[in-house]
Amino acid sequence: MRLYYAPWFKSSSLRVPLTETILTALVSFKTDDSLHSLPAFPTRTVLGVKFFSGSLTEVTDHALLGGLVVAPSGPGLANDLPRDPAYRDALVAADLVLPDSGLMALWWNRSHSNKKEKLPRLSGLLFLKELIKREAQGVLRDSFWIMPDAGQDADNRGWLAEEAGLVIETKDVYIAPVYAGAGLLADESLLKLLVERRPKLIMVNLGGGVQERLGHYLRDHLDYRPIIVCTGAALAFLSGQQVRIPHWADRLYLGWLLRCLANPVRFIPRYWAARKLVGLLKRYGADSPLPLETE
Predict the structure, then answer these.
(1) Cα 35 to Cα 58: distance, rounded to the nearest angstrom
(2) Which positions ≥6 away from 62 have C-beta within 8 Å?
(3) Backbone dihedral angles phi then psi of residue 146, each to the nearest 5 degrees
(4) 211, 185 Cβ separation under 8 angstroms
(5) Domain-wise residue ranges, the chain
(6) For FRET with 45, which of 52, 165, 240, 293 sits at 20 to 30 Å CA-CA?
(7) Which helix (H) or strand (E) holds 43?
(8) Is 78:72 a contact under the CB 8 Å cutoff?
(9) What pTM did the predictor assign?
(10) pLDDT tens digits for range 173-200
(11) Cβ-count burial of 291 within 10 angstroms (0-12 exposed, 13-18 middle, 19+ buried)?
(12) How far apart are CA 85 and CA 200, in angstroms?
């Protein structure tokens, strides 16, 4: 992977100070199980899942210490969480869970008037942008990218090279097969490749419901502790493979609307089904909706 300094990073608004914690993590990156124990950070438990409740800078600092980072979508929480133990286990086992769902964040904050109980939304798109901003400090060096297909791979890598100055070589990419929609997930070919390559950062750019289970499988079966980031379609939003979501739309929780307008056949049924999330939140609150007898 070759790196170039891009003008995209010259803006002072994109500079992020390198904290002492991250400097230590990048300079003396360890690859043993000690990275699995992250420093304490604030969380809110919703539907049995501990969501990170701090700032974007804080969550990025923690993520770069290693482990599995996931950003479950509203449809995933509404449909996969109540029925798929493997999906639930992936979210519960993750080292960091981003509160990506705007619907969940809105409901939670409206139901909890105490400021100390609020859950600020942190989208996977915003988190990915923060990682890319930090590439000026070498955050994405020694990375490996899991892509859904050859077309998205070409567009995603083209955007990263042009806009972020990050040239990802073919040997640092894995085109994922079509995985099962539910249940335990395994990919021995990918696992073997990662064990041989041992990248410090693994970027999983697959659909929600699949990427979390794949990330969980890799985290538990690799013989070292990389950073595994599952941000779904976030890179596709930036590269234009899916509708571009401007910052104002992401901040106003309107990314779902733009996706529905751009591809109504695909996304209207998906987000219509996500309305069940409100009922789950009202009924279960902090508790898991998956019945114990399914475990």
Answers:
(1) 17
(2) 38, 39, 41, 52, 95, 96
(3) -100, 115
(4) no
(5) 44-294
(6) 293
(7) strand 43-46
(8) no
(9) 0.79
(10) 999 999 998 999 999 999 999 999 999 9
(11) exposed
(12) 29
